[in-house]
């Protein structure tokens, strides 16, 4: 691909843009705009920012992503988990509602932008892979609970807050006496309505005779209806005077030009949170983008996506926003509404700019409880404990990683939760590879196949021990192999040859090479020779660079069959060992 | 093995102890004692401890190791690298020479003891494997330089010090004006003599007609001769009055009973250093023990070795010592001198106790420069940059790990050096496995073997793509595989079947399973079916627990040959692709 079109995907799709694409994109933009106005306000509330920041964070970032991003349907802006992480990070450096808080949000967005751009330019997108699927699932579930509990106080009309399960429960419990009844009624009705919209509105509209597409669009407008109805109720019944918290004055303006504060102190405090936000945001975004692209047999480029998201966050930093990423629900709506190119995003940005210019006076009386209801209904859809069951039945290490992530996120907060998830997955993986499966193999009678003597009925020669190591050999398991082989041979004085069957050895590092040298030396002192079979090309290439192959007391065989044939003692007949294969072992070797 | 004899190896070898073993052990003990007196004093100086602490650290620990250790020749006590790490750790909590410093040394030894015992009881010996051989080699080389430079001031008779290369060079440069000539002459002569002892004394003694064994013993006494000669010189020429630093008063007593200070503050500060000291000490000790055991076809038990070393460090903590481990030079001397059981260690301890009781007045005039010379000559033997060359030619990631370890140790000190070494090895390993080698394979004509199309001349069917993944599939490479396969298939519209050849896949974790499900789903949307071949037993067992095998659009084949035969389109003849194998590829697959 040409370098310029690689970094500016807009040059590729822009060239073939036509009227039919334009009309599809316009329709999608209208639908997404209607959905995004309440959602942007709500996620601003979740991030602890003023409501207009949610709109600002959706305008410039969408435009910049349209220029640099590779997904045709991805819609960027504030999303639930990243907004929660933003609130957690900013809470450590400033008081919510203060000038410093909003300023630090710009810094956080700028740092995320720089980190994402750097990861994209240096092609470090693979780093995100260290967040395993189960860890992400556990993290999102735990975050959803934290978010929903945190918003509950807006529904109850009480004060308080917290970053962890215990803090939140204690704060809710301690302030229950403050419950504001009008807020609770309004918030409760809005929540119930939104749950119904999610589950029951579309079938109901279809029942009334609406076409499927129109029913879909109308269902997306559910939150707007809740916003309108509760705003009217507050205004008409003067509920503001009865203690219902409202959004209040929102500036009627386009996004301002802002300059993030990059003082070393603030940057130092926000760097790690920005890194975590960037990685989590990228993982969420790329998953959505790849899922949607696959449906049209298109591909997204992970490293260019990093650049697109980095540009979007830089946009947020310079226009009064806060960290953004590609959101799941908004992107799916965009895709389902028929968006064909990133131009749909640009039209959405235009719609949101219109809203920021003209609609803000209308939301003066909008109760915060309605926004909280929007958030709660959205995030409870993310809470899914089935990953615990799935991982438990599939693999215990995965289960441990998920359970740790959920427990730490709930108990100690989002930043430690996601860090603990990554750390424990890596440690468990290293632990597994440090104690590799080593099978002793023998020949299945009448074939050239060599199988585990514990799983199959095989023939072996008492003078030959063949060990198949099911792992790359590297520093963490080098000594384990040494111990295993020497233990095996010290026990059995009949052994004259040890064959290492290397078909599953993808790498031999210098530590492992030194262990092999030591094994060769020690076996040689015992009068036993060491052979290798089925060594892979790349591994063999590397072994040739050292003197190991010259010192090797035995030989290197192309195939295990050849090795066994060459070393077989003609006098001693094969003995049959092992057991018949288990009936459920079909397909395994 | 019976539980009691497992934890008390003394019960095994003690039962068959006889007169011939006794006489061998006694001879070895005499030789080792002669060697250990100056060495213990010197390493105490290196650790910043009073000289007698070096003797104390060799008495109780040797006795306890004799009870709990499994190596028959290992000699524990203060060693160079651990003494340096001790000085670095204690320097952060107290001033050298203060009461607090010696007290903190007891705490450090106690913490090391607890850590080693815990690792042994919980069978965590494998953790030491994360220190790769090249990292250890680099670390010891860099430590040797730091130690030698640090001791140079005792030879020059100047003050100063430091933990890093730059600090040490700056301190030496800044204080050069203070050089004390008598000290320099004495220290220089001692150093030159000890180098000659190391290289030339034994051949010279053989030339004088001594038998090889006697020449060997006499050469070991070289340091004692240097100690005696320089002590006499200081006494006779009254060099103490001319500024030569001397050892001075050393208590004439058996090791005292001491109680380590376990206040939470001090423990908190010393915990991490104690962990690093424990791991480094264990790795050094186990390497020596295994090397010596192998020479007699014996085995040491790594987890029991941890218990032996833990007990030794507890002994040091309660008898006025500092952290100890199994030393290379003393163990080799013990082995070469003919030690047959740990009883030799017990006799050595007796000899050292005698020395502590009777010899200490004799070393009042011993110049510190002589001890520094002993250290410098010993550690320069450890400095070996050849690991840089070896790792460069064998594998670049190993080279990066070694170079980083050496650079960080020299620039930032021992603790960061060894931590950086472990961290970078793990990261490089994860990086490698996150981008696995994936080979497209085809059948070598006339055989049932399938090889890389880039390395061999093979036959393929245009409708079938067979990919051999040379790595376990886990979270870090799950997405890579997904990208690789979808890129390959999207490019080539002729493909109808994708076969994943899994002989080198030792593990499929839940993330990878989800990626496989996604690959299966997306290929299915493109009308391409996914098959697996040569799946290993343990991997297959696990796959059966999920619903992946039910959803799989293709089949699971026992062998790749069977898969290719079953899927081959009879109409389209095989096309020959790839190239002839390179002539240097013999033995590789």
Automatic annotation (TrEMBL), chains A, B:
Pfam families: STAS (PF01740), Sulfate_transp (PF00916). SUPFAM superfamilies: SpoIIaa-like. It is found in: Membrane. Residues 567-589 are annotated as: Disordered. The chain crosses the membrane at residues 26-47, 100-122, 134-156, 176-197, 217-237, 270-294, 306-324, 344-364, 371-388, 400-431. One of its GO terms (biological process) is transmembrane transport. Residues 454-567 form the STAS domain. The keyword Calcium does not apply. It comes from the Bacteria. InterPro entries: SLC26A/SulP_dom (IPR011547), SLC26A/SulP_fam (IPR001902), STAS_dom (IPR002645), STAS_dom_sf (IPR036513). It is a multi-pass membrane protein. GO terms for cellular component: membrane. Keywords: Membrane, Transmembrane, Transmembrane helix. This is Sodium-independent anion transporter.
């Amino acid at each position: 691909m040409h370098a310029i079109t690689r970094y500016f995907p807009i040059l590729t799709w822009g060239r073939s843009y036509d009227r039919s694409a334009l009309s599809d994109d316009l329709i999608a933009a209208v639908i997404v705009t209607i959905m995004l106005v309440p959602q942007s306000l709500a996620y601003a509330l979740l991030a602890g920012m003023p409501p207009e920041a949610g709109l600002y964070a959706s305008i410039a970032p969408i435009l910049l992503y349209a220029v640099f991003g590779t997904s045709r349907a991805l819609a960027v802006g504030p999303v639930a988990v990243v907004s929660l992480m933003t609130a957690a990070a900013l809470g450590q450096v400033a008081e919510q509602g203060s000038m410093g808080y909003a300023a630090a949000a710009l810094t956080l967005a700028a740092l995320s932008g720089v980190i994402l751009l750097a990861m994209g330019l240096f092609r470090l997108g693979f780093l995100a892979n260290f967040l395993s699927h189960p860890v992400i699932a556990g993290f999102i579930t735990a975050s959803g609970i934290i978010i929903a509990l945190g918003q509950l106080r807006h529904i109850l009309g009480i004060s308080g807050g917290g970053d962890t399960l215990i803090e939140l429960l204690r704060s809710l419990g301690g302030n229950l006496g403050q419950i504001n009844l009008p807020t609770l009624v309004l918030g409760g009705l809005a929540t119930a309505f939104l749950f119904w919209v999610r589950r029951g509105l579309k079938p109901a509209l279809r029942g009334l005779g609406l076409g499927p597409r129109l029913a879909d669009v109308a269902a997306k407008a559910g939150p707007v209806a809740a916003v309108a109805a509760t705003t009217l109720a507050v205004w008409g019944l003067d509920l503001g005077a009865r203690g219902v918290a409202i959004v209040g004055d929102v500036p009627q303006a386009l996004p301002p030009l802002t300059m993030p504060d990059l003082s070393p102190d603030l940057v130092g405090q926000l760097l790690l949170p920005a890194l975590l936000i960037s990685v989590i945001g990228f993982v969420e975004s790329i998953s959505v983008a790849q899922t949607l692209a696959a449906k049209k047999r298109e591909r997204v480029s992970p490293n260019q996506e990093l650049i697109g998201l980095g540009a979007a966050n830089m946009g947020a930093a310079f226009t009064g926003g806060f960290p953004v990423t590609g959101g799941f629900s908004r992107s799916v709506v965009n895709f389902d509404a028929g968006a064909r190119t990133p131009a749909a995003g640009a039209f959405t940005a235009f719609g949101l700019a219109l809203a920021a210019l003209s609609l803000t006076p209308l939301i003066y009386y909008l109760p915060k409880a309605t926004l909280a209801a929007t958030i709660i209904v959205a995030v409870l859809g993310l809470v899914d404990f089935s990953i615990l069951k799935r991982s438990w039945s599939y693999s215990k290490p995965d289960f441990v990683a998920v359970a740790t992530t959920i427990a730490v996120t709930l108990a100690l907060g989002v930043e430690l939760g996601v860090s603990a998830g990554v750390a424990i997955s890596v440690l468990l993986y290293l632990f597994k590879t440090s104690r590799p499966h080593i099978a002793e193999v023998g020949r299945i009678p009448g074939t050239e196949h060599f199988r585990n003597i514990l799983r199959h009925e095989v023939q072996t020669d008492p003078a030959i021990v063949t060990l198949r190591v099911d792992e790359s050999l590297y520093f963490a398991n080098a000594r384990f192999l040494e111990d295993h082989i020497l233990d095996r041979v010290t026990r059995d004085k009949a052994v004259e040859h040890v064959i290492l069957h290397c078909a599953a050895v993808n790498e031999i590092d210098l530590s492992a090479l030194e262990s092999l040298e030591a094994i060769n030396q020690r076996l040689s002192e015992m009068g036993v020779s060491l052979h290798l079979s089925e060594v892979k090309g790349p591994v063999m290439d590397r072994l040739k660079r050292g003197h190991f192959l010259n010192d090797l007391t035995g030989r290197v065989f192309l195939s295990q069959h050849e090795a066994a044939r060459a070393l077989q003692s003609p006098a001693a007949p094969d003995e049959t060992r092992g057991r018949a294969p288990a009936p459920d072992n079909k397909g395994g070797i």
